[in-house]
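Notebook p. 47: complex prediction with coenzyme A.
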Amino acid sequence: MSKPLDGIKIIDFTHVQAGPACTQMLAWFGADVIKVERPGSGDVTRSQLRDIPDVDALYFTMLNSNKKSLTLDTKKPEGKEVLEKLIKESDVLVENFGPGALDRMGFTWERINELNPKMIVASVKGFSDGHHYEDLKVYENVAQCAGGAASTTGFWDGPPTVSAAALGDTNTGMHLAIGILTALIGREKTGKGQKVAVSMQDSVLNLCRVKLRDQQRLDRIGYLEEYPQYPHGKFSDVVPRGGNAGGGGQPGWVLKCKGWETDPNAYIYFTIQGHAWAPICKALGKEEWIEDKAYNTAAARQDKIFDIFAVIERWLKDKTKFEAVDILRKFDIPCSPVMSMKEIAADPSLRASGTITEVDHKARGKYLTVGSPIKFSETTVEITGSPLLGEHTDEVLASLGYNPDQVAALHLAQAV
Ligand code: COA
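Predicted complex, structure tokens below:
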């Protein structure tokens, strides 16, 4: 079956997570993604945090499915020659090297544009061009600190905290994918390629825009009514960490359920949506609160919100998180069990939708990965195993016109 990105050829010069997450998604949607890796070692994640000796780590396999692997030493003349040929017949080159690495290899934007004016060159860097930190190498947590996520995550009496979600890495890769697809559509109109650049700091900040909203509200009025610090605590002049408070206009909190003493995830997230106040009271058996002026508006509830949460926790005491949600969903209350990774891995709905999917790998056998979070009515996304290092080198070289003797000579020239 044809895929929307069939015929789009991508040179995947990415490593670790931010770049690979982007190119993996484009490969799922049909692009021919050729991952260019250093002979001998390849992407560092192949060997990071291994669970099986000498087998590509899950870190690699879960970010590089549906791709081909071409080993090429692009610092040697023979490797540069192959890369030039690839550039001439590809649509996109994606890279997330440290600042200046591609230029030092001799592949500046100008040179690539000269080789193929239709080429889209897409880059991830820690900070944007011209930023006073533009020379810095950056990993996930560095970006979360630079983009405002860490200062606003965690509890007010603890240090800045990073999120387990890859806000700096995969999130930046997703922004880059949007940039690439936009440039591809733009190219249909202009016939020209362009440079697409996304910084990790900017991508984190893009997800933290409500915190910049809050800074401006705080500057103006001196308090933030939806934060736990209001109305009993104090605000400084910077947005505080709000624990598990809801970030919008709906107060919410993580609440204990039956078994929390021994199960670290026996909790639900409970949201008190303004217009759902009556159903909440009914669900809790507190019908007297429905018309009580001390409780029946969001403003009236705010100064006793933690007392209300305590009442809900008492109601939750004899219910598991799943039982609680099964009751609350009938009352139209936005809530969810706090899901552990073990529960997610086994979740029948996630399996059925393909969001959690089992993939076969030549060396490791079966493993679980996260499938496409984007679902289409006409396109089926099939996830295939990640390539072994250099698995497609001969095939790609042959497609570029190299005969078997030339392929053998290239292997020799690149031997490590
Ligand atoms: N053949 C020959 N050389 C290769 C090669 C290949 N196939 N692939 C990479 N290299 C070289 C690069 O040219 C570079 O050489 P140079 O520094 O001598 O010019 C070298 O490998 C190292 O590249 P670099 O990307 O700087 O690796 P690093 O391990 O020092 O840094 C990061 C890793 C992730 C910190 C850095 O790449 C970075 O900041 N990237 C941008 C932001 C980013 O994406 N962060 C990670 C998100 S998961």
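Notes: The two ends are 40 Å apart (CA to CA). DSSP finds 17 helices and eleven strands in the chain.
Next step: compare against the earlier run before touching the bench.
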